[in-house]
C-alpha cells in the first residue's frame, strides 16, 4: 500500500517529540504487553526527555508522517542505523545495562525484564556486522490502514539499502503482516510472553537483508 495522497514524510525535530509520545500512547493504548512493561500511560515527561536524547544520537533516524492539510503528525518511526559493527556493539551493551532495571511505572517489572532479556538474547545471536534496527513505530489509530506504517518502514529500509546494512525488528502479531509485505522474514524462535490474565503474547524477530 502506498502512502495516501495528502500525507508526507519528514525528519523529526526536538519540538515534535511531545506529539510523538502522545501518538505512541494512543497507538498502544490497548496493548497488554506495553501496559505491563511501562504502565497505562507511562511517564510522559521521562519519555519526552529520553526521545530528545535519542534524537541527538548520530545513528538515529527519526521520521514523521504529516497530514499536509492540517500539519498534524499522524505517525512516526525511530531507526538506529549503525555503519560499523563496533558502534552497534557498544550501543547494544549500553542498552542491555539500562534494561536490567524496569521503569518505575511498570505494572509488571518481571515482564519487562524477561521480555528485554529475550530480545537482547536474540539480537546477540542473529545480528552480525552493521544493522539498522527499528526501535519504535506508531501510527494514530484514525490514520491506520492508510499506508502510513508501510511508508515509515520502507523509508527505513531505503536507508538500510543505501548503507548496505541488514534491517532488524521485533514484530507484534498486529504488525507482522505489514513487515512481511515489506520483505522481512522471521528468524529464530519467537518470544512467548505469558501475561497472566491478559493471556499470552507472541513477538517475532524479523530480518531484512538487502
Automatic annotation (TrEMBL):
<dbReference type="Pfam" id="PF00583">
    <property type="entry name" value="Acetyltransf_1"/>
</dbReference>
<dbReference type="InterPro" id="IPR016181">
    <property type="entry name" value="Acyl_CoA_acyltransferase"/>
</dbReference>
<dbReference type="InterPro" id="IPR000182">
    <property type="entry name" value="GNAT_dom"/>
</dbReference>
<feature type="domain" description="N-acetyltransferase">
    <location>
        <begin position="7"/>
        <end position="210"/>
    </location>
</feature>
<dbReference type="InterPro" id="IPR052523">
    <property type="entry name" value="Trichothecene_AcTrans"/>
</dbReference>
<protein>
    <submittedName>
        <fullName>GNAT family acetyltransferase</fullName>
    </submittedName>
</protein>
<dbReference type="GO" id="GO:0016747">
    <property type="term" value="F:acyltransferase activity, transferring groups other than amino-acyl groups"/>
</dbReference>
Amino acid at each position: 500500500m502506498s502512502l495516501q495522497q495528502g500525507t508526507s514524510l519528514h525528519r523529526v525535530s526536538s519540538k515534535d517529540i511531545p506529539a510523538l509520545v502522545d501518538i505512541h500512547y494512543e497507538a498502544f493504548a490497548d496493548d497488554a504487553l506495553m501496559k505491563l512493561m511501562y504502565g497505562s500511560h507511562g511517564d510522559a515527561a521521562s519519555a519526552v526527555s529520553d526521545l530528545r536524547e535519542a534524537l541527538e544520537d548520530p545513528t538515529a533516524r527519526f521520521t514523521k508522517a504529516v497530514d499536509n492539510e492540517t500539519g498534524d503528525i499522524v505517525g512516526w518511526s525511530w531507526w538506529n542505523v549503525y555503519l560499523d559493527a563496533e558502534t552497534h556493539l557498544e550501543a547494544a551493551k549500553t542498552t542491555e545495562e539500562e534494561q536490567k532495571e524496569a521503569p518505575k511505572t511498570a505494572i509488571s517489572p518481571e515482564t519487562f525484564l524477561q521480555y528485554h532479556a529475550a530480545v537482547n538474547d536474540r539480537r546477540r545471536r542473529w545480528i552480525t556486522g552493521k544493522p539498522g534496527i527499528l526501535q519504535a513505530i506508531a501510527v494514530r489509530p484514525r490514520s491506520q490502514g492508510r499506508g502510513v506504517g508501510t511508508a515509515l518502514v520502507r523509508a527505513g529500509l531505503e536507508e538500510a539499502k543505501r548503507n548496505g546494512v541488514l534491517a532488524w525488528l521485533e514484530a507484534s502479531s498486529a504488525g507482522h503482516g505489514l513487515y512481511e509485505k515489506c520483505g522481512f522474514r522471521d528468524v529464530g524462535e519467537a518470544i512467548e510472553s505469558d501475561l497472566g490474565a491478559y493471556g499470552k503474547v507472541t513477538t517475532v524477530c524479523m530480518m531484512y537483508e538487502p
